[in-house]
Every structure is written in structure tokens, then in C-alpha cells.
From TrEMBL:
Its EC number is 1.2.1.16, 1.2.1.24. Residues 948-1111 form the Ribosome recycling factor domain. This is Succinate-semialdehyde dehydrogenase, mitochondrial. It comes from the Eukaryota. InterPro entries: Ald_DH/histidinol_DH, Ald_DH_C, Ald_DH_CS_CYS, Ald_DH_CS_GLU, Ald_DH_N, Aldehyde_DH_dom, Aldehyde_DH_Superfamily, Ribosome_recyc_fac_dom. GO terms for biological process: gamma-aminobutyric acid catabolic process. Belongs to the aldehyde dehydrogenase family. It comes from Fusarium longipes.
Length: 1116
């Protein structure tokens, strides 16, 4: 027979008033066998209830709200009030009193909970036997045991798992506690338990007293020390309006603060809404966020509306709300930075990024695949030619501007690092400064990338070297230093003139995206920096970066196994590699060292970032003479650590990044204990803080056979190894496959040199535990990788060294003249006008840099139309020019005569007609010439008064082509060529291949007529038809005018589309609100406020769009 108490309709029985002894009388009237059956059926029912409640308490908060158990917000049974709730919220702020700590630890152990249940069961049985009143007393103790179990299960539910439930955790904590304290007895006086069980009443009273006592204890110091900024801002107002929050906060459903919710009709409506419409539904998420802002009052309002729970809410609960950024636009969600724009993945897929401290969802990032990444690679390749031609000083200014942006937003960057990485704010701020230092360092190095002059062993030869950028670079960064690792790679790449495609870590992508936003604000040209993200597709992107021939260099920081794989994949294209891989750093303390300094150095090296650094001390060797002293002092230092959420004040160490890191640390600790190691402190998880927290651990009496001696732990575990002699410790330190960093402490100068040279590592710290510096080269040996980052050596990783040999400097002067008496140098340039020197040099460099481009560009030069002596000559000798043999292959080009009336001078001036050109003694086309021209002649013919000095001629089919396109405000584009776009003002002229069209996009119609006239005169002069059917070179110019009104029309169309999207979104929200109002889900006043808020948001957005439209049109 099933008793009413355990039936699903038990709540109905609780709500009905009963006569004093109806159950007692009823029970006594039962037959003896029936009473006996009930007696033995009771434990069987209890055995069925306990497993379900245990499962519920571990990980199923949603089961709590299901109709199956009938324990929801609408009933508020006495089980809702328990001390574990307040203890959990309280434990995240400061150390508990001893009694509270014992209480919490006891009621978080399910084994103890089951023991308590058994104890209550036996007490109930004994009491029922003595008092001969079986059912009421027995039911009382059964219910009391369930209260105890519920206390434990609720404590487990309110933990990190609860943060992912349907109701904001902070509001749930204090609402439930508030219910328990504000209405301790009155609401439940009609309940069966409260009416018939004195024991349960006493138990519940004890619970209320515990809650009240712990609350008072928590309140007293908070009045002085822990008043938050939010409270100060709301001072003087009776109610507080909800603060404006970014879209990212609304989508993640984070509450503005961790304040209490009074039991009012508004919260009752919200509870009903929460119960009927899950917040995880995408179609209601935006509207739900809006309602949440209207329902949840701020701190001061709650304090004045509900004084009975003031004691519980004066202190902010840890991790109750996300950090508030000064500039929320730095947190980029669902987009990556490609070609100067924020784009989504074509597939639309995203992956989640969670806070390692709480497990809360931070946001989502796009899941890029190889197709998306190829666009980023293409953008970097297109940007490379123009960026490499920038001077070192120009690149320096860009890096400095990026540095300035980073320092100005340092606090927000630190908050993002702490949020997604978990490290304390103090460490995050230090990393931000460290990361910015790389930008500053390389901004100073960019103008000083010098070459060398080398004495040659051959008489008459001169040898020198120059440094050139390697090309497009693929960068793969780790999660442990999300800001420093990306600036340490991008900084030297940009200083050298390279463009990059950076793959951000899946665990901490938001820091990389924030830095990309700051780079965009700093004015770094589009396509130079590209940042992509992926999680599941990470192997696919890694393979693309290592196999795509466009990528000329790959830089990777991560594990040794992944580095080996990337090196194998790069073999097919022989890329330049920089690999900074795993480490297993030895930390040696000799008996002549300063023990206190050694302890401080070991603490800094081992436990920085909770031991999650590649250079942290993984094996600490202490000489036997000072071993015990070192262990004692080292352990005492570790005892002073404060582990917790990185945003809490006073926290020194945060969580590990994920479950796999915890499992590896646990495995190493268990292995050490199994093989004789002794844990002096720590050695276990800190589950009360969260699933990713592990106590800082010290293990003494370590031996070389333990896993920690040969594997990188990457966690807060310090293994202390004793040693006897110097030779012994050097052998143990080098007995590993990796060699990244090593440390030792000694006062013996001879030993310092000896040990520093003996350690097989790339970096050595002597009497210090911190070795990283922007000015110092960073890298390892053996299987820790190769290449260096930081310092001037880091810049060299992104450069190639080109050697140039110039011959004939020591021979007789007569050897350098040809038959005509002209100098036979490789290149004879005589600039009489210094005003044109810069323009000429720029063009001259372009002539060689674009020598292999598909457009087959030729040497070009600029001349002046005015002035006594323009550019005198440009000529090449019969031999190949040393720096670019592929450009001028044994070209025989004569220089024009010095006389202004000569044929070449007339051709240069554009005043020669076709008859004069044919009869003049000028070089004729050479059929063996692979580029189909034999001379380069510059001409000047002004088009506009604003562009007097920048026009050029073109060689076409071996004859002069006076197509004076000059330096107009145009852009030239060849869809098939490698150089997709480059400004015509720097090009001067182009020799296209047959069958290709060159589009000139002219911004002003007044330039169309002179351009078309020049093209027509060129065709008439050379007797060329409009289209040639043979395979000779032909010039196809297509001029397109973009008028200002066309641009304005497109702007207005885009603005209108955006406004339509806003209106459609509002319509969807209004429809949802109407449905809720119709169904009675939400109170009418809530719907009205929501509609007003929607109108307010829409008006604000429309105003911003109109302002941006007007500003854009003004800038045209």
C-alpha cells in the first residue's frame, strides 16, 4: 500500500487542513497485518526515492522543475529552505567560520547524507516503538531525512552546474533564502509535516537560525569593506532602473548583478514565464532578455523593498555576472577578422567558449573551415606587395599606433583574458603589459632591419646583403597567454613587412579578436592582419596553413606532438618554420644558494598562471644539504595562496583551462604517491570552487622513475627531487627529450658558467625564476622546437637574407664605355631635379619588385614637363642587371641622345609623328626579345593642373605608345593577375598580355575624355585596330565612371535594408509579447513596459543609422 506522503498528490494533502488525530486514529484502526505491511513497505519506498534524488542532486537541475516531483516555484515547500544555499554563496567571498566550514563539508558528501538518512530512519523506528504512535513519528523522521538529502542535493545543484540552468543562479540563491527567512512558519502552518511533527518544526527552526547567523556574520564586515561601485552609483534613489547592457550580455542571459529578488507579483510572473518558456529557445531569447531587464530590480531597490533579506545581499556573489567592459565592442562574437572586415563562417556554424571558473557560457565564435580560411590567405597575399613596399618607418608607426590602442584598452583586454582563461586579474594585467611590450619593441626595430657589406675575395666585386620579408605567414597561437603569444608573433612579422593569417586558440579566442579590433583602429591596412577561429576544424585549418603554397612561413606554439605533425605537413612546400613546443624545465638549487631567494624564484616559475606555462619549473632539484629547509619554506609559501575566481579580490591562482588538464594533473599526483612521493600540501580537486580547480600541490621525495620526471605536468604541482652532486643533477636535468628552459641558483661564479653551458636548453635563468622579455630571444632545442621569438632574432625569423654581388668595380675605366661613348653601366640615371628623386626611386623599386607579375611590367620613370633639365636617360647595358636577372635578360637598349632635337628626345616628349618615328635612327623591335620591347621611353603630357608631374609612356608591340595615364586618382585591376589591385599613380604604365582587359575605375568624369583621347591617339599612331585577332599584345582599356549619386543611392539602399531588418525584428518581438499576454503567461504591466522598451530601442537604433548615413555622405 502506498502512503499519501509519497504519492504525487501529496501536496494536495498538505494544503488541506486535517483534524488533530485523524491519521493516528486511522492507523490504529488498521488490522495488525496492514500496519506490519506499512512498516516494512516504508523502507522500500525510501530506497526508491533516494537514488532518484541523488541523481537529481548531482547534475539535473531541470528535473527539479519537472512535474514529476511536484517541487517547483509554485509550491515552495519547506524543503526549499536550507543552510547550504547561503553557505555556498558565502564560501565564495571569504573564509567561513569553523562551524560553518564543518557544516558545509559534511553536507556536500553524499555518503554522509545517506548515513544521516539511515540515522533518522533508525531514530524514527525507535521513537515509534517507544511512543507506540508509529505513523506520524515515523513519517516525521522520514521527512527530516529527506530534508537532509535535499540540503545536499540542492547544494550540488546550486554549484557550477546550476549556472547553465533556466533561471539566473544569483537570483535563485537569494530568492530561495529570502523565502526561508521572511516566511519561516506562516505559509506552511497548514502543511502535514508542520502540523503533525514537532521534530520537523524544530529542525526547520534550526535551519532558519543557521541561515540568520551566517548572514549576520557575512554582513558585518561588508558594511565597511565590500560596498560595490554599483551601490555607490545608486545612492540616494529609492528604486534603480536596470542598467543598459550590451547585446552579448543579453544573449548570454547574464543578470546585471547578483542581487536578491523579493517575492512580488513581478517575480511570480517571471517564475511562471521561466517555467513555461525555457530561455534556451533561440526564438524567444531576445525578448526574454528584455523582460529580464524589466523584472530584475537593481541592488538598492531590493534593499528598500525587502528589508527582511537585506542581510543576505549586501555582498556580491562570486561569478554572478560577467565582467563589464568599458568598451563592449571589443568582445567580438560570431565573427572573424578577414581583409579588414568582420565576417561570419560561410557554414554558419559556431562553437561555444565557456568560463573555466564557472562553466558559464561566454559567447560563441565562428567555426571556420578551409574555404573560409582560404579567403583570409588570399587577403593576406593581396595585401603583401603593397605592405612590403612600405618603409620601415611607416610600419613602425603602425605598430606604435597598435601599441597605443592596446595600452588605452588594457583593462578591458585583461578582463577578457581573465574571463576566458581564468587567471587572476593581476596576472591578466601583467600579461597585457607584457603583450603590448612586444608591439613597442618591434615598432622600434622595424626601421633598423639592416643588411651587411661583405668584403669579396674577387677583385672588383662588391658584396652586400639585404633583408626582405619572407611573405605571407601562418600563425597558430596557444591559450595559456592569449594576448602575449599573438603579439609576439604578429609584431615581428609586421615589422619585417609580412602579412599574417593567425589561428586563434579555441579556448581563448576573444582576446585575439579584441586585439584584431585594436589593430583595425590603429590603421593597419586591410588584409595585413587576419584572425580566424575554429574548434572542430582546427586540424583542417592547420593542414591548410602548412600545405598552401601561398603561405611561406608557419609559426606555432603548442605541444611537441602537434609540432611534429605540422612539420611533416609543411615538408611538401618546404616552408620556413618556427616551432616553440613543450618543455620540462629543471630548476636546480645548490647548497651554496640563497634559500629564500631560491624559494621565491621557484614559486614564481612553477605556479605562475597555475603552472600552465611552457617554461615553468617542472622538476625542482634541491641539493641534499638544504633539502628539508627548502621543502619547509616552499610549503609555507604555497599555504599562503588563495585559489578562486580570477575576478575576486585577493585571489592569487585561478582554475585550470579544462577537464583534460585536471585529469593529467591528477594522474601525475597519483603516480607520484604510488611510487613513494609524499604530498605536503594540496593533492586534490577543489570541487567546492568549480570543476576546473585543483589545489596547489607540493610533493617531496620525488624520484626519476615518476611520470613527472619525464612528462610536462602543466598544472599547479611542484615535485621536489633531492640530489647529491653536480654531475648527478646535470645528468638528470638533461635526461629528457625536450629542452626549452632551465633554471639554477648558485653563488659560485665558476659553477654559474659551468652549469649554464652544460644544460641542454635554449634558455637559462640564473638566480631568477622569470626569464621572458621582449628584448630576449625565446626558444628551445631538441624536441622543444627551433627558431626564436622576441628580440632582433625574432624579426629575422620573418625575413630572408638576399646576397647581391656587383662586379667590375676594379677594372680599367675604358671597359665601361660602349662604341657610342656612353657609359656601359648596368643602369645610368641622372636626376637633375631633386624634386622628382623620391617619385623616381619609388617607381624604380616597383620595376624590380613586380618583375614576375603576370602583367609583365617594364622599367618606368617619371619626368617633369617643366624645368630646364628633366630626367636625362634610362638605359641598360648588354649584361644582365645583377639584382633582377629575370627582368632584363641581356637587353640591348640605347640611351637617347643628349640633344633636345634628337629623335629619342622627340619621342620622349611625345612630339614625334609616325613618319619621323619610322625614319629615325631609334632601336627597332627585337624578335628574340621575350618581352616584345627594346626601349623604355618616358613621356609627359599634362592632363590636369593638379597632376603635373606624374604621367608615363607605354611600350606596346615594340613601338611608342603615348597613353598618358599618369598618376590619376584611379585603381587598376587585373582579375587574372597575381596583383589584384594596386594604385595607378605608382604603376605609371602597364604592358598587358594578349586577351586581358585592364579596368580603370575613374572617380571623376573630367578624366575620361583625356584618357580616351590618349588611347585613341595611341591606336592611330601605331596603326592598331580596335581589336587584334593575332596573338600580339593589345591594349584593352575599359573605363567606368562611378558617379557620386550612384554611391549615395547604394548607401541609401543599404540603410533602408538595415532599417527594415530592425522593424521586422520588432514585429517578431511584439507578436511574441501578444501571445504571452493572450495566454496569461506575463502580467499586462510587464507587456506594456516591454513594448515601451522595444520602441525606445528602435528609435535609438534608427537615430544612429541616420547619423551614420549623413556622415558617410558628407565624407564623399
Amino acid at each position: 500500500m502506498k502512503l499519501p506522503f509519497f504519492s504525487r498528490s501529496s501536496q494536495e494533502h498538505m494544503d488541506k487542513p486535517a483534524k488533530p488525530n485523524n491519521y493516528k486514529v486511522l492507523f490504529r484502526k488498521w488490522p495488525r497485518k496492514a500496519r506490519k505491511a506499512v512498516w516494512w513497505l516504508m523502507p522500500l519506498e525510501l530506497m526508491g526515492v533516494v537514488p532518484a534524488l541523488v541523481i537529481f542532486g548531482i547534475s539535473q537541475p531541470d528535473l527539479y522543475r519537472s512535474d514529476m516531483w511536484k517541487i517547483g516555484w509554485e509550491h515552495d515547500p519547506p524543503l526549499n529552505s536550507n543552510p547550504a544555499i547561503i553557505l555556498y554563496a558565502y564560501a565564495n567571498h571569504r573564509p567561513l567560520p569553523k562551524i560553518a566550514l564543518v557544516w558545509t563539508r559534511t553536507f556536500t558528501d553524499f555518503n554522509v547524507a545517506i548515513s544521516i538518512i539511515s540515522l533518522f530512519f533508525l531514530l524514527g523506528k525507535l521513537t515509534a516503538f517507544i511512543m507506540k504512535c508509529w505513523y506520524p513519528i515515523f513519517a516525521t523522521f522520514i521527512n527530516a531525512s529527506l530534508v537532509a538529502l535535499y540540503t545536499v542535493s540542492t547544494y550540488g545543484t546550486i554549484g557550477p552546474d546550476y549556472a547553465d540552468s533556466r533561471y539566473p543562479a544569483s537570483a535563485a540563491w537569494y530568492y530561495r533564502v529570502g523565502c526561508g527567512i521572511a516566511r519561516p512558519y506562516g505559509k506552511y502552518k497548514s502543511c502535514l509535516i508542520a502540523k503533525y511533527s514537532l521534530v520537523v518544526c524544530i529542525y526547520m527552526l534550526f535551519i532558519y537560525l543557521c541561515n540568520l547567523g551566517f548572514s549576520i556574520y557575512a554582513l558585518l564586515p561588508n558594511k565597511i569593506n565590500d560596498v560595490s561601485d554599483d551601490d555607490e552609483e545608486d545612492e540616494g534613489s529609492t528604486t534603480s532602473e536596470p542598467k543598459e547592457r550590451g547585446v552579448w550580455e543579453m544573449h548570454n542571459m547574464k543578470t546585471p548583478d547578483a542581487r536578491a529578488m523579493p517575492y512580488t507579483p513581478r517575480t511570480q510572473a517571471f517564475h511562471t514565464l521561466d517555467r513555461q518558456l525555457p530561455l534556451r529557445s533561440q526564438q524567444h531569447r531576445g525578448t526574454m532578455a528584455l523582460l529580464q531587464r524589466l523584472v530584475a530590480p537593481s541592488a538598492r531597490g531590493v534593499l528598500r523593498q525587502s528589508p527582511t533579506i537585506t542581510l543576505m545581499i549586501t555582498r556580491k556573489a562570486s561569478n554572478a555576472s560577467p565582467p563589464k567592459l568599458n568598451d563592449p565592442s571589443l568582445l567580438k562574437q560570431d565573427v572573424c577578422y578577414v581583409n579588414g572586415e568582420w565576417v561570419k563562417a560561410k557554414s554558419g556554424k559556431t562553437f561555444k567558449v565557456n568560463d573555466p571558473s564557472t562553466g558559464d557560457l561566454i559567447g560563441t565564435c565562428p567555426e571556420f573551415d578551409s574555404k573560409d580560411a582560404r579567403l583570409a590567405i588570399r587577403a593576406a597575399a593581396d595585401a603583401f606587395p603593397s605592405f612590403r613596399n612600405k618603409t620601415g618607418r611607416e610600419r613602425s608607426k603602425l605598430l606604435r599606433a597598435w601599441y597605443d590602442q592596446m595600452t588605452a584598452n588594457a583593462e578591458d583586454i585583461a578582463k577578457i583574458i581573465t574571463w576566458e582563461n581564468g587567471k587572476p586579474m593581476a596576472d591578466a594585467k601583467g600579461e597585457t603589459t607584457y603583450a603590448a611590450n612586444f608591439l613597442e619593441w618591434f615598432s622600434e626595430e622595424a626601421p633598423r632591419l639592416y643588411g651587411d657589406v661583405i668584403p669579396s675575395s674577387v677583385p672588383g666585386n662588391r658584396v652586400w646583403t639585404i633583408k626582405e620579408p619572407v611573405g605571407v605567414c601562418g600563425l597558430i597561437t596557444p591559450w595559456n597567454f592569449p594576448a602575449a603569444m599573438i603579439t609576439r608573433k604578429i609584431g615581428p612579422a609586421l615589422a619585417a613587412g609580412c602579412t599574417v593569417v593567425a589561428k586563434a586558440p579555441a579556448e581563448t579566442p576573444f582576446t585575439s579578436l579584441a586585439l584584431a579590433e585594436l589593430a583595425h583602429r590603429a590603421g593597419i591596412p586591410k588584409g595585413v592582419v587576419n584572425v580566424v577561429t575554429s574548434h572542430e576544424n582546427t586540424p583542417e585549418l592547420g593542414k591548410l596553413l602548412t600545405s598552401d603554397p601561398t603561405i611561406r612561413k608557419v609559426s606555432f606554439t603548442g605541444s611537441t606532438n602537434v609540432g611534429k605533425l605540422l612539420m611533416e605537413q609543411s615538408a611538401s612546400t618546404l616552408k620556413k618554420l618556427s616551432l616553440e613546443l613543450g618543455g620540462n624545465a629543471p630548476f636546480i638549487v645548490f647548497d651554496d644558494a640563497d634559500v629564500d631567494a631560491a624559494v621565491a624564484g621557484a614559486i614564481a616559475s612553477k605556479f605562475r598562471s597555475s603552472g600552465q606555462t611552457c617554461v615553468c619549473a617542472n622538476r625542482i632539484y634541491i641539493q641534499r644539504g638544504i633539502y628539508d629547509e627548502f621543502v619547509s619554506k616552499f610549503t609555507e609559501k604555497v599555504k599562503s595562496f588563495s585559489v578562486g575566481n580570477g575576478f575576486d579580490q585577493g585571489v592569487t591562482h585561478g582554475p585550470l583551462i579544462h577537464d583534460k588538464a585536471i585529469e593529467k594533473v591528477e594522474a601525475h599526483v597519483k603516480d607520484a604517491e604510488k611510487k613513494g612521493g609524499k604530498v605536503t600540501i594540496g593533492g586534490k580537486r577543489l570541487d567546492d570552487l568549480g570543476s576546473n580547480f585543483y589545489a596547489p600541490t607540493v610533493i617531496r621525495d620525488m624520484t626519476p622513475e615518476m611520470d613527472m620526471a619525464s612528462q610536462e605536468t602543466f598544472g599547479p604541482v611542484a615535485g621536489l627531487f633531492p640530489f647529491e652532486t653536480e654531475e648527478e643533477v646535470v645528468k638528470m636535468a638533461n635526461n629528457t627529450e625536450v629542452g626549452l628552459a632551465g633554471y639554477f641558483f648558485s653563488r659560485d661564479l665558476e659553477r654559474v658558467y659551468r652549469i649554464a653551458e652544460s644544460l641542454e636548453v635554449g634558455m637559462v635563468g640564473v638566480n631568477t625564476g622569470l626569464i621572458s622579455d621582449a628584448a630576449a630571444p625565446f626558444g628551445g632545442v631538441k624536441e622543444s622546437g627551433f627558431g626564436r621569438e622576441g628580440s632582433l632574432y625574432g624579426t629575422s625569423e620573418y625575413q630572408i637574407t638576399k646576397m647581391i654581388t656587383y662586379g667590375g668595380m676594379g677594372a680599367d675605366a675604358s671597359d665601361f664605355h660602349n662604341d657610342s661613348g656612353l657609359m656601359n653601366f648596368d643602369l645610368d640615371l641622372d636626376l637633375r631635379s631633386t624634386q622628382n628623386r623620391f617619385n623616381h626611386n619609388t617607381l624604380f623599386e616597383m620595376a624590380f619588385s613586380r618583375a614576375n607579375a603576370p602583367l609583365r611590367t617594364c622599367l618606368r620613370q617619371l619626368v617633369r614637363s617643366e624645368g630646364p633639365a628633366p630626367l636625362r636617360s634610362i638605359a641598360t647595358s648588354p649584361r644582365t642587371f645583377s639584382t633582377s636577372p629575370f627582368l632584363l635578360k641581356k637587353r640591348k637598349i640605347s640611351a637617347p641622345a643628349n640633344s633636345p632635337n634628337s629623335a629619342n628626345a622627340k619621342a620622349a616628349a611625345g612630339s614625334m609623328n609616325k613618319a619621323e618615328y619610322d625614319t629615325a635612327k631609334v632601336p627597332m623591335p627585337d624578335p628574340e626579345d621575350p618581352l616584345d620591347f627594346t626601349a623604355v621611353i618616358a613621356a609627359y603630357a599634362p592632363i590636369d593642373a593638379h597632376f603635373k608631374t606624374q604621367l608615363a609612356g607605354m611600350i606596346h608591340g615594340g613601338r611608342f605608345n603615348p597613353t598618358n595615364l599618369g598618376s590619376l586618382p584611379v585603381a587598376i585591376k587585373d582579375e587574372e593577375g597575381a596583383d589584384a589591385t594596386f594604385p595607378l599613380r605608382e604603376l605609371a604604365q602597364v604592358v598587358p598580355r594578349s586577351g586581358r582587359a585592364i579596368s580603370l575605375l575613374v572617380n571623376d568624369k573630367e578624366y575620361i575624355k583625356p584618357i580616351m583621347s590618349a588611347v585613341q591617339s595611341s591606336r592611330e599612331f601605331n596603326q592598331q585596330p580596335q581589336r587584334s585577332e593575332d596573338n600580339e599584345l593589345e591594349l584593352l582599356l575599359k573605363v567606368e565612371l562611378e558617379r557620386k549619386d550612384d554611391v549615395e543611392r547604394r548607401i541609401k539602399e543599404a540603410v533602408q535594408q538595415w532599417k527594415d531588418r530592425i522593424r521586422n525584428a520588432r514585429s517578431r518581438h511584439e507578436k511574441t509579447l501578444k501571445d504571452w499576454k493572450k495566454n496569461g503567461t506575463v502580467l499586462p504591466d510587464i507587456v506594456k513596459k516591454a513594448e515601451k522598451e522595444l520602441q525606445k530601442v528602435q528609435d535609438k537604433k534608427m537615430k544612429e543609422i541616420d547619423q551614420e548615413e549623413a556622415q558617410t555622405i558628407r565624407q564623399l
